[in-house]
Amino acid sequence: MDDQPIPIEPVAPVQRDTLQAQVRWGERVVTVGGGAPVRVQSMTNTDTVDAIGTAIQIKELALAGSELVRLTVNTPEAAAAVPYIREQLDRMGIDVPLIGDFHYNGHRLLTEVPACAEALSKYRINPGNVGKGDKRDKQFGQMVEAAIRWNKPVRIGVNWGSLDQELLAGMMDENSRRRTPWDAKSVMYEALITSAIESARRAEDIGLPAHQILLSCKVSGVQDLISVYRALAQRCKYALHLGLTEAGMGTKGTVASAAALGILLQDGIGDTIRVSLTPQPGEARTQEVVIASEILQSLGLRSFVPSVTACPGCGRTTSTTFQELTKEIDDFLRAQMPVWRARYPGVEKMKVAVMGCIVNGPGESKHADIGISLPGTGEAPAAPVYIDGEKSVTLRGDNIAQDFRALVENYIEKRFGAAATA
Fold first, then answer.
1. What's the count of helices (H) and strands (E) in the chain, helices before strands?
2. Which family does the record claim for this protein (predicted)?
3. Binding residue per annotation — 190?
């Protein structure tokens, strides 16, 4: 019997073959699906009527890395404000495409405020909120016709909190006649998927190209989301928008979103994502963009900002120096990225290590592009710095943080600045 070990194959997210949508504004084209990178999007929480305030928040979200930004369009006043928001963004040099989030009266707003329909780059339609009875097909059709008229893609977004009750009731009646009825949750899953796919087929029948249709079926439970999206991905080739709706606040929302999205993205499911995080009091709206970006970067799907490997701390690290330095370096790298993306191509893939003692410090620092191993409790007051795997210099004294930051800046300029001029 051969007991020789076999190589352990590294894992990576699989790729799902989907249609590719194009979301445009001016010269900016954001591709979604069809082999494009998984896109990050977010949504404003300002009153859309406040055009200046909304434009400022959209700018902040875009600079944080949001490639698409959705905003509420719920009243004639909000619809009238959209062109002015777009104008303000264009003046600031922010070309991020805008998505209009429509419910109940979207058919009227897109028809009666054509400047809004034109200024948006994509429409979100919830088939559970477009009307009831005979009005449903007509009002849904009006929204799709607006998308065709202005050459805009559409996300058909089903949400279990606003699922088409007539469809669900009909499927429940059908289920009751089965020899072995499904449980209620399985029927609800099926209703979500049926609503999305049937609405997409209806949009195609009206004339909207299939590649310009994206689907989502949002729920708020991690296992529910995984179940629904795995089935949805098997039944269609539309690009899929992925997100856990009403994920929650702080740690709860972050962990739930990371767990659900991480599993599905590893399966190759999801072409654009949003982390629906409830902001904690005083927390910036951009936090949901940071988390979405970190999920993709942790899976190796995208690189947005240099990664910082840091020591968690233990009894060997009673000093808080490594914590303070880690935060300073991480904040510095994120703040500089809007400029560095153009100036230093490839810098987003750089790895920095900030370690707190001699146990793992030198090893982790050698694995990074640039790393520092700070002294732990009782260790000599010296901090060796490693660059490209080799010990470069040892820092001492009261200015270690400033000296290391200067070394990081110098490294970036030397390595990535040269690439930009090559």
1. 14, 17
2. Belongs to the IspG family.
3. no
- The verdict on whether residue 116 carries a ligand-binding annotation is no
* DSSP code, position 67: S
Instruction: Kindly report the CATH number that applies to the domain delimited by 307-418.
Output: 3.30.413.10
Encode pLDDT of 238-282 as tens digits. Answer: 999 999 987 788 899 999 999 999 999 999 999 999 999 998 898
**Phi, psi for 109 (deg, rounded to 5):** -65, -40
C-alpha span between 290 and 305 (Å, rounded): 10
Question: Do the annotations mark residue 357 as ligand-binding?
Answer: yes
Class level of CATH domain 21-299: alpha beta
Q: What are phi and psi of 259, to 5 degrees?
A: -65, -50
Domain ranges of the chain: 21-299, 307-418
pLDDT digits (tens, 9 = 90+) for 133-192: 888 999 999 999 999 999 999 999 999 989 998 999 999 999 999 999 999 999 999 999
Reported confidence tier of residue 322, pLDDT bands at 50, 70, 90: confident
> Is residue 236 a known part of a binding site?
no
Q: Quote the CA–CA distance of 224 and 245 in Å, as a whole number.
A: 11
